[in-house]
Structure formats: C-alpha cells, structure tokens
Amino acid sequence: MTLLTVENLSVAYGDMLAVHDVSFAFDIGEVFVLLGANGAGKTSILRCISGLVPARSGDVAFAGRSLKGKRPHEVARAGIAHVPEGRRVFPNLSVEENLIVSFIRNRSKDTLAVALDAVYQFFPRLRERRRQLGGTLSGGEQQMLAIGRGLMTNPDCLIMDEPSEGLAPIVIQGLWQAIATLKREGLSILLVEQNAALALKLVDFVHVISKGRVVYSAPPGDLWANDEIKSRYLGI
Ligand code: ATP
C-alpha cells in the first residue's frame, strides 16, 4: 500500500526554483534514499514534505491524504517524523526533556513512560546520558537523540536528512545498524544521504536528484552497476 506520494512538487525561494516538478511514491515498510550533489534540492524536498517550506506547486499525500497547507506539527501528528540535517536537539534541555517534548499524546497507545523506555531500549546510551544537557553530547549521541525524538512521535514514516554527516566512521557504523533495525521492524524511511555507498547497502530504492529534478530512479543494484550515473551525478 502506498504510504507517501510526492506529485509534481516544486519548491521556490523567491524567484529561485530549488525543486522542479518532482514525483515519487513509496509503500509502507520501504526505505528510499534521495542522492545527489550539494544544492541539488534534496533538503528542500524533505522540508516541503514536513511543512517547513511551502510547495510552489504540486502536492504531497500521506496515507491517502493531502498534506497541502499543513503546518509542521500537523504533519508530525499525521505520522511523519523529520530528523533534520545537523541533528537539531535542544542544547539546554536534558536528554530526557528533549525526548519528553517530542511525545505526541494520542498518536500512540503507549504512555509517555513506555515510549521513553522504548527509546532507551533502542539507544541504551541515551538512558545513561538522560540527565545530561543535549548540547554537551557527542555528535553521535546527538544523532541518537535526534532519532529518538522522532521515535517518540510513534511515526509511520521517518524522514532523515544526512544522518551520518560529520560523524566518525565507527559512529556511523553503529548508527546504520540502528537504522537497519528500524527497517527490519517495518518502519518506512525516507533518507537523504551524501554517502551513497553506505545508503545503497540498506535502501530499497534510489532517486538521484540534480538541479532540483529527479534524473534517475532505480533499485540500488541497478544504480551501483551504472557507472555513467554514478560518475556524472554522485562523483563515484
Ligand atoms: P545540501 O546537501 O547542501 O543540503 P540539498 O541537495 O539538500 O543540498 P537544498 O538544501 O535543498 O539542496 O538546496 C537547493 C537549493 O536551494 C540550493 O541552491 C540552495 O542554495 C537553495 N536554498 C536552500 N534553502 C534556501 C533558503 N532558505 N533560502 C534561499 N535559498 C535556499
């Protein structure tokens, strides 16, 4: 069953069109990645899905309902959790407070305590650090917290913008194991990732974005075998 449909989406900042007529869709339980160079428009697509920037034209539908005009908190209530680029956490709140403020009552049958415990089971490091301020965590711990905040909303779809950016290889490895576990548990995930080799190991489908347009769409194995697309758009 189709979960998310992006249809002829365009996003502009003033006169500058950052996303041109982009369309794609994915089913429940799938993991998709948007790949492409810096400035290609990937973040703008994610931010538009989440209601952080308006669409110039086109539509996004989630579980059969248009998200047109919805504010970010309404998109979150609909079941989309957005883990932003740069892992924004509240630096002056503790780990636990960061998680608590993300909980959406009525989206889950669980109580706040059960939802917190589930995140702590998933990321035991966050339990150890639960009294520590968000701003004092390492980069990897902040990324766990950013994902944990997303999980506190009990999402049907997790959107992650460059989760491995700026992290050490060993930390990235642990993070991708966590993302793989979420996939195994059936969560639908839409990723933006610069590290194509890493992303292609995990995802079901790839869209390559260049200059705001989808220029190639295929399963990861097909992309991996396509030297022209890899070198032209991904520099590998
Ligand atoms: P990156 O990997 O660098 O984040 P990206 O593929 O995610 O790149 P976007 O961040 O969506 O690309 O940027 C697409 C284009 O829109 C770029 O030319 C960028 O400079 C421009 N842009 C993004 N955000 C804004 C903004 N708030 N105001 C004006 N222009 C913007």
Q: Can you tag this structure with a few keywords?
A:
binds adenosine-5'-triphosphate, alpha/beta, six-stranded mixed beta sheet, single chain, 236 residues
DSSP E strands, number: 10
Head-to-tail CA distance between termini: 34 Å
The small-molecule ligands in this entry are:
adenosine-5'-triphosphate
> How many helical elements?
10
Main sheet summary: 6 strands, mixed
* Mean of all residue-level pLDDT scores: 94
Radius of gyration computed on alpha carbons: 17 Å
How would you characterize the overall build of this protein?
This protein is an alpha/beta fold and about 240 residues long. It has helices at about 40-50, 70-80, 95-100, 110-120, 125-130, 140-150, 170-185, 195-200, 220-225, 225-235, and strands spanning about 1-15, 15-25, 30-35, 55-60, 65, 80-85, 155-160, 190, 205-210, 215-220. The strands form two sheets. It has a six-stranded mixed β-sheet, with helices on both faces. The longest helix is centred in the last third of the chain and has 16 residues, at about 170-185. The chain is globular. The mean pLDDT is about 95. Adenosine-5'-triphosphate binds near residues 13, 16, 36, 40 and 43. Adenosine-5'-triphosphate binds near residues 16, 18, 38, 42 and 44.
